[in-house]
Structures
1.
Amino acid sequence: MNAMKCFFVTGLGLGLAYSLSAGTNGFVVPSFRGSPNAQFAGWETFTVATDNGVGNLPDLLGSKAIGALIQHEPHAAVLGSGNIYNQDFKSEFEVRYSASGNPSLVVLQVRTAGNELAYDSVKLTYAGGSESADRTELNRVSFGAPGTPGSGAFVASKWEWDVTGKKAGNFSIRFNSADVSVSLDSLTLDVRSVPEPTTWALLLSGMGLLGWTALRRTSP
């Protein structure tokens, strides 16, 4: 995420251009990313502004999770920067995830520009229920004089859910804008899963075989 992203914000008849390196978005790398039974999906450039039945598939290098980002409010647009922007209406976002495993930990990170999200709207929903999570603010970079047209901030946030034993293999995370003029800049999803029973069996049998081989080598 080292590319320079620029986006164009219009408001009250004024056009204001801002740019910031996406590499400074303030996201963190969970300790389990890249480990067995972990999946990652990242979105840096969006191509679909409203719900077309498919949404935006992950585009960041290393993305392996089966997921899609969908924006449901019909008046949004994709800017030249690849951001999803809604000047006159509140956007309604959804991340959909599907996998055969059993997730135990879900980490969502979102970066916006302009106005901010309704942070209390962020919820993870699966077959057994719906859960909120505490928000952690990771980064904030303000631009423009407060209260003037075109002012706002780049804000990076993180949410984390422990869904161990809840059979949340298929889930969605929904979140909304708190106001108009919110630009969705980037997003990452990390999921750590509990190994399937067959995986545990293979691991245990492999460990047993190694132990038996070592015993044979040390036996007279």
Note: Helices lie at 197-218.
2.
Amino acid sequence: MSHKLLKPGFDLTLRPMKYPVFYEMYKNGIKNTWTVEEVDFSRDLEHLHQRMTPAEKHLIHRLVAFFATGDSIVGNNLVINLYQHLNAPEARLYLSRQLFEEALHVQFYLTLLDTYLPDIEQRAEAFRAIETIPSIRKKGEFCFKWMDTINELRSLESREDRRRFLMNLICFAGCIEGLFFFAAFAYVYFLRSKGLLDGLAAGTNWVFRDESAHIAFAFKAIEIARREEPDLFDSQMQELVIGMMEEAIECELGFAKDVLEQGVAGLSLKDMEQYLKYVADTRFDALEIPRQYNVRNPFQFMELQDVQELTNFFEKRVSAYQTGISGSVAFDEDF
């Protein structure tokens, strides 16, 4: 029987390599190594205390409360549910790298919270947000629901098992990393477009790149699984994916209403809803599912992030890490 990515078992042999694309993704991840210590938050405190409106402060407090546990949930799912079922050592190499990056993101957000919320009680409240703030709890429940669907699945023996696994993978790459976090990035880059919170934006650049790579890996794994088992992704599963994305948008819109409830100048709930639908359509494109919304990106500052800044990074930054140069990295050039 020819090797299949979702075949039960635990292949340990890297040669001959069955899926070199995953090994290349792993190597690219290594090239993009960064550290939290490179992020300079010194100006952020001045902005928080002297330049931001109460509504903007509310936005950032809700955002850091979501960040407090978001990447921990993703990392836990990776270890508990994903690593054991992708039967290719080169794919597991990438997942090992991804787990390191998730830990780095947790460290970044921990440092962010410690910096932004020096009051111990405020900080503890942020870490309890997944239990105490309804809009964040709803997003957490969405994550845990899909984690729980395959928690007890130890081997992908049947086609139904493989579909359940793919639904988990699509949820975490397409809805959680691919929608919840991209919504969070939009808030950060909106504030940056107003000249606010340089440190948060600089660190988010690194996280943005990592998350984009995680999504690309997951969608490549899904593409390969579908190619190896063409009838795996049937019309019923397609409808399940569409329904799952709709539920994710509903969760994120609830969070947006909370974040924007005090009225943030220049950022409307209507635009946020359109942005979420635009992002969802990009995930549908990657999954070869017809677009459901057909809307444009309303946020010009996110288009700049997607194209120009990423290009700038890959052209100018990677070589610094390859040659072992250390020091701070600035992202304040004019693009």
Note: The chain has one domain: 42-313.
3.
Amino acid sequence: MKHTFSIFAVLTLALALMACSITVNLFEPTPTESLPVIEPTAASAVTAPTVEIILPTAASEETIIVYFMDENRFVAAVEPYEVAVTRTVPAGSDLPRAVLDAYFAGPTLMEYTQGLRLVSSGFTHVRRLEIENGIARVYLGGVCANNGAAYSVANLIMKNLSQFPEITYVKIYDENDSNLDPDSLSSSLPYCLEP
């Protein structure tokens, strides 16, 4: 009975395999036999989806506004004396500092021929800029030589920094870190820039 059942099971398995069109070789292939090669067809080919990742591109430069004195307007007493020009700086720059550095770099040759001037009052650069609680503290380098002029580098520093909403007051310090009113909630100058 077991023998009949085993034959019956093998026959059933053989019929099931033929019905599924699957060929099973229960024997090891001999060296002269070759295994069937299955070639992919267009219907059986599966293509992977193409994934394109688009990363946002960051601007490599930013435009800043820098104010210089217009000598022609100043001589004619036509306000405002300050004229805006643009410069580009690397993206992500400290913009208030970049504006002051661009100011001390001076106008271009073309801007100079149009009457724009760097009023430095003897100062040559910004040593340090601190902005905290709406107060910008500008520490200048060089040697103050304002000679009592009513219009000085202070006017232009204040004009340049007033474009930033985070700055309410500007305190300018000379080469000795001196300022007449360093602790008040108002803008103030060193003694040498007072008219």
Note: The CA atoms of residues 67 and 159 lie 7 Å apart.
